Amino acid sequence: MPKPPSTPDPPSTRDRPGTSKQTGTSKQTGTSEQDVTPGAGAVPHPAHTPGSADPSGARVDPPRRTAPAAVMEPQAAFAELGTLVVGETPLSQVLARVAELAKACVPGAEEVSVTLLEGDKGESGRSAAFTGRLAATLDERQYAAGFGPCIDAAQSGQVVRVDDTSDDDVYPDFAAIAARQEVRSSVSVGMPLPQRTAGGLNVYRFDEGVLDQDSVALLQAFAGYAAIALANHSLYASAVALSAHLQTAMQSRAMIEQAKGVLVASLRCTPEEAFQHLVKQSQHRNVKLRDIAADVVEHAIRA
């Protein structure tokens, strides 16, 4: 702990109130006025309170928060993102890494989140990734209200800025809530997604000032990568679903062919007539054709 500032010696012609002339010690405390090392049995001067006067009478201004500088080169970030394979890496982890790297690369980005709006009209919003709880909280307030910069950016694909939360007439409710959390400004960048899912990348800033155009352009690059990851995940999920559907269809077809064989033998009919028999049973009982076929095959095995 730094040593407290020394106190000037009193004038020799006048005693200080409450001190002994011979020893220079305080009658109230009984300790020497010479500097005392903290932890040596004496109590050091208390720390100055921001915005209050120090012992010499000078006013101490409160410390200002400064926005963090970029700690990572964008090229390195994009190279890392390029190694993440959607399908091998869960989408949630990919988006979380996008948010973390955007925070590391974009100067002034103190909280970052990824918004996803799902459904035909984008009525279901959620924060798929975020670097801090405050970002998620501010996002969720917008989802609950159905209105806000992150929602508008996601739906429009545009850049939506709130440069001063203390004076914003476009999003006054959001700005008031953000200002109470000491957020000074925000930028939301929409993702170029043609599918039913809309998305955006949001930055919340505590320091005075706003993100410059270069920072916004960099943020758009991260939003573009997140959009590619989402698109790839959608294609991958569709491919997986299609594969599962085809596998089920092939299994169903095999079961139906077995049932047809059983009926050809038992009813002494043609394969076409056996298939029509299965169809009629399916419609009459309101049961899937595959299940009717499975019942025929199982009954033949037990017989």
Give the name of the CATH architecture of the largest domain: 2-Layer Sandwich
Determine the N-to-C terminus distance.
92 Å
Order of helices and strands: HHEEHHEHEEHHH
Given helix and strand content, the structural type is: alpha+beta
The main sheet comes to: 5 strands, antiparallel
Helical fraction? 40-55%
CATH class of the largest domain: Alpha Beta
Radius of gyration: 35 Å
Strand content: 5-15%
The CATH superfamily title of the largest domain: GAF domain
Q: Mean pLDDT, nearest integer? A: 75
Task: Walk across the major sheet and give the strand order.
Answer: 2-1-5-4-3
Q: What general outline do the C-alpha atoms trace?
A: elongated
Q: How many β-strand stretches? A: 5
Helical element count?
Answer: 8
Can you walk me through this structure?
The chain has 303 residues and is of the alpha+beta class. It has eight helices and five strands, in the order H-H-E-E-H-H-E-H-E-E-H-H-H. It has two domains: 74-237, GAF domain (Beta-Lactamase, 2-Layer Sandwich), CATH 3.30.450.40; 246-302, Winged helix-like DNA-binding domain superfamily/Winged helix DNA-binding domain (Arc Repressor Mutant, subunit A, Orthogonal Bundle). The protein has a five-stranded antiparallel beta sheet, sandwiched between helices. Helix 2 runs antiparallel to helix 6 and helix 7 crosses helix 8. The longest helix is centred in the C-terminal third of the chain and has 55 residues, at 213-267. Strand 1 and strand 2 form a beta hairpin.
